[in-house]
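User: Here's a structure from my thesis project, written as structure tokens. My advisor, Dr. K., wants to see whether a designed sequence matches the one we expressed. Can you design one independently, without my sequence as a hint?
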């Protein structure tokens, strides 16, 4: 089968249960998987237990996640627990082709390649839906949304779903408010061991990594505009500051704007920041955060990157109406606006996966412990969970932290009996 990617016709490798770029890439995929597993010791502990207990025996799991080496380790963990898996990507530019082919070589149902057309993207999602999953694992809510809109007849067999990212949680909570949500969804993104580690440390490092690979620009001395000061924005700001950049934050939330100011950053509206920024990074989960009116105000040579899940944060669609992109480096397009050059990384898609490799394996180990344990929790509590967006119990989140501390060789203190009694009592005072 052939498809068009970056203007070129690409021949795809296709089998009964897979469609990937090139099956010959599998050897490199296995090597990358080997490295990832060596750095994901917390998840490997879960895998070892799953191997013994088989808590997911007979469970079909449909996944729409970034098909990376770390995700492949999660897939192997769930299979060790007895599950049957079908997986596709959750973003057209985030698949690591060598990893997708390695999964295909292992006999796993996988449909994914880097640079998917919109038609292939949704065709692959429907392949996963046709697998009739009992559990869905999503990053961005496209799989869940497609099931609810077009495949409602399958919902009665679905135990629950798990959502990986902030953008997906925003969409799911909107579904819940509209009474549109029809099966329980576990907000894995809201685990402390996810949003306070993955979003903060992972997004911070991998976003900078993606911009550097796309542009090779020096951050030191640059004005870096971070749009959004949630957990991801905080991480990006910290890492950019560490590289010597001057940080400007734009926000719509008063408290987060206050946090950014007290963290020592300049805070201003995007219209004002557009005039002084050298590098712009969006991490909001919203759309048209950087719009044409802002781009027209930017300096010659300004660089735009998005690290939110969807490619809606930078209004690239409107930009293309007034300027034709020129590919000047892999994953870097040049546009001319009012006689000035503006550069967009990774087509406005999440830059850490479009232009780099996503979060480090150590970070994804805790996030994917959350996914694996959320699946186990859902299966154990089949029929008992409310049809709403829920969080995992705190003890599971803390258990994940314990696993990661153990993997890092770190010990912490434990409360004495006296301390435990004191902290649980109200009677002892001054």
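Assistant: Designed independently from the structure alone:
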């Amino acid at each position: 089968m052939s498809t068009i990617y970056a203007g070129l016709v690409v021949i795809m490798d296709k089998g009964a249960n897979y469609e990937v770029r090139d099956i010959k890439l599998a050897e490199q995929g296995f090597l990358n998987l080997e490295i990832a597993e060596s750095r994901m010791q917390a998840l490997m502990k879960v895998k070892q237990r799953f191997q013994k207990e088989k808590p997911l025996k007979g469970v079909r799991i449909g996944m729409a996640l970034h098909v990376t080496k770390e995700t492949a380790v999660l897939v192997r963990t769930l299979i060790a627990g007895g599950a049957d898996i079908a997986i596709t990507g959750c973003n057209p530019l985030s698949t690591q082709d060598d990893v997708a082919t390695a999964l295909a070589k292992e006999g796993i149902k996988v449909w994914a390649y880097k640079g998917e057309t919109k038609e292939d993207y949704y065709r692959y999602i429907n392949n996963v839906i046709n697998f009739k999953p009992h559990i869905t694992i999503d990053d961005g809510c496209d799989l869940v949304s497609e099931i609810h809109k077009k495949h409602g007849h399958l919902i009665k067999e679905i135990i629950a779903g798990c959502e990986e990212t902030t953008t997906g949680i925003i969409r799911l909570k909107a579904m819940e408010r509209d009474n549109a949500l029809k099966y329980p969804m576990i907000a894995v993104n809201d685990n402390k061991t996810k949003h306070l580690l993955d979003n903060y440390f992972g997004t911070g490092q991998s976003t900078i990594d993606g911009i550097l690979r796309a542009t090779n620009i020096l951050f030191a001395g640059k004005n870096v505009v971070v749009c959004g000061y949630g957990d991801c924005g905080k991480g990006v700001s910290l890492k950019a500051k560490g590289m010597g950049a001057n940080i400007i934050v734009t926000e719509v939330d008063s408290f987060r704007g206050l946090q950014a100011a007290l963290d020592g950053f300049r805070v201003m509206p995007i219209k004002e920041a557009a005039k002084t920024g050298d590098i712009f990074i969006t991490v909001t989960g919203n759309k048209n955060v950087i719009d044409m009116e802002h781009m027209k105000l930017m300096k010659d040579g300004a660089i735009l990157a998005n690290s939110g899940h969807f490619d809606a944060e930078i209004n690239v669609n409107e930009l293309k109406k007034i300027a034709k992109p020129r590919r000047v480096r892999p994953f870097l397009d040049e546009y001319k606006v009012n006689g000035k050059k503006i550069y967009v990384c990774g087509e406005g898609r999440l830059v850490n996966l479009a232009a780099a490799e996503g979060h480090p394996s150590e970070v994804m180990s805790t996030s994917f412990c959350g996914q694996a344990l959320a699946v186990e929790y859902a299966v154990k509590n089949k029929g008992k969970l409310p049809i709403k967006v829920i969080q995992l119990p705190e003890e599971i989140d803390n258990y994940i932290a314990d696993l990661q501390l153990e993997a890092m060789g770190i010990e912490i203190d434990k409360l004495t009996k006296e301390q435990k009694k004191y902290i649980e009592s109200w009677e002892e005072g001054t």
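When you compare it with your expressed construct, this may help: The chain is about 45% helix and 20% strand.
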